[in-house]
Amino acid sequence: MTNSTYQKADQNPDVRDRVLQSADRLGVQLNEQELERWLKSINESTGDDNIVADDETGIFGHQVTMADFDPQDVARLRSIGKIVEFEDIPGVMETALSISGSAAQSRMQVYPGDCDFFERINIIAPTREECCKIFAREMRKKALAFLSGSNYQLIELKFGCYPSTVMRGDKRKRAGWLIVWQPDEVVAGQIAAVDEQGNPVIITWDEVAHNPGWCGLNWVVADSIRGQLTNASNVLDITWESPDGNIISLDGYLDGYYQEVYLQPESAAVVSKLMKFASPDNMETYIARLQGEVKNYTQEGHTNYGKAAKRLYNIFRLDGHYEEAAFLRELFDEPAAMLYQIHALIETIQDARDRATIFDLESILDEAEQMILRVIAALSGEEELAVVKPMLRLYRHLCRQAPDQPLGEEVEIARDEVMKIVNNFFYEKMNGIPAIRDYIDQVSDAPVIR
Predict the structure, then answer these.
(1) How confident is the model over 199-213, as pLDDT tens digits?
(2) pTM of the model
(3) Of the residues 217, 323, 369, 439, which has the fewest C-beta atoms closer than 10 A?
């Protein structure tokens, strides 16, 4: 497949100079050697379905994606991958595990948030119904086998859709919405709720197996190599291979591979087979979906300019906006961008404290202490005070709160203060580049929030 908007970097030879000028004007520190390496990698890409492999490690992915991944991370990611990955079943289920999100861009995102995995699961079965049964069985089997271990604990998983509108606690869940299962509910194989009339309702695992929807699992993991807690997620793309060899996605959309780095060389045959059934306009669809997310994250009520910047970068590096992509790329190793990681780590601490049992208080306090030290090292003046104060309150709260009491609003206050600075940083830098500001205006169908 060839994207008509894709063009080589050497078709625009002034990219490097303009990026340097913009970075200097906006006070962004820039690694010129890394910029040169990235532009060379982009220039060598074809724009087609271009999978390349690293001979030393065996990892592979789209050439543009591989330009952002540091192979030195492979051992760490494969270690965590042993927790999240599904096992093949010869002749029945074949898998391909990859890393995605900020973890797949470790050359540029030196402060990654969560550890995001993406796994393709292709099930060979006589009927779609049988395919769903196999997946439902393997999904629950995986969750039960990896509920907890010496360095990890399952927090939740997403599987199935509500067959009718129900209330779970004080939350209304509409028919067709994705179901989020807690570990004890997975063990029981059912969820207790009430219908709109207040009558008890039991939703069983097998009952929703025919419509698995968008599926994924989330763990908190103690990353021994980096010496910190992290949220490790595995988003699943499940496909059914019918007896005639046709392959379809159970959620209706066969994802492209523009953001994944695959960790095992033996997965190449599976990925190659699946991509033959991807839509001819797969890249355009991928970009359109990212544009919708940019619109969402730049609107009031959902504002997250850090997430918008990440999605804009993924768009620009594929559709020929190399100057804008190169500039955004440099933002993610700025000290203020580190707070994006801190925002994720605060949530990880909350999950480790409120939703896990294997992490003792001392290890959680150590994590909180390290976060505070990172903020002090990265910021100064009023910004430093604005973030450190609520984080110190959170630290004291961790020390004093009874084990059976959730952390509550102290977490939200700390996260909100961090997000204010993250938003201000990315907003200011992105709006300093007219082409990026105009692009946001265009996809948002409204002026950028001033």
Answers:
(1) 999 999 999 999 999
(2) 0.87
(3) 369
